[in-house]
Amino acid sequence: MTDMKYGEKEIQNADIETWPYDHSVRDWIDIYFPEFTCKCPRSGYPDFAQVSLSYIPNEKVVELKSWKLYLNSFRDRGISHENATAEIFKKFMAEVSPIKCHLWIDWSPRGNVTTTTQLNHNISL
């Protein structure tokens, strides 16, 4: 058995962390993650995607290293495009509770077919 490298350990224990946001300004925050990977639950073949997240914070913002590690935790999981999108969205919403949020995932073509998955959240203040 090989020893797990420090990055693999961080990914294995990944969870979303947040920072306090205590400003009255409600700017959009855009985060782009161009190297998302997971595996097709049927074939086991790798799926590749670009993850775009835009949100208006309420009381918290996401800590970027934890976001990267959380997204990397999907790399060896067999999960559909739709389920990966829903799981990422729900986890982000639970941890950050933004005022508005748009998650857009652009999946690389497989078999000459491409998929885009999107979820939105909007609350009134």
Characterize the structure shown:
- By secondary structure, this protein is α+β, with helices and mostly antiparallel strands.
- It has a single domain, classed as GTP Cyclohydrolase I, domain 2 (2-Layer Sandwich), CATH 3.30.1130.10.
- The protein is built from three helices and six strands, in the order αββββααββ.
- The chain has a four-stranded antiparallel beta sheet, with helices on one face.
- It is globular, with a radius of gyration of 15 Å.
Provide mean pLDDT, rounded: 94
Task: Report the span from N to C terminus.
Answer: 53 Å
Topology, number of strands: 6
Q: Quickly give the CATH architecture.
A: 2-Layer Sandwich
The chain-level structural class is alpha+beta
- Rg, Cα atoms, Å: 15 Å
Largest sheet: 4 strands, antiparallel
Share in helix: 25-40%
Order of helices and strands: HEEEEHHEE
CATH C-level class: Alpha Beta
Strand content: 35-45%
CATH superfamily: GTP cyclohydrolase I, C-terminal domain/NADPH-dependent 7-cyano-7-deazaguanine reductase, N-terminal domain
What are the low-pLDDT stretches, counting only 5+ consecutive residues below 50?
none
Using the alpha-carbon principal axes, give the shape.
Answer: globular
Question: If strands are numbered along the chain, what order do they take across the biggest sheet?
Answer: 2-3-5-6
Number of helices: 3
Q: State the CATH topology.
A: GTP Cyclohydrolase I, domain 2
How many domains, in number, for the residues? 1
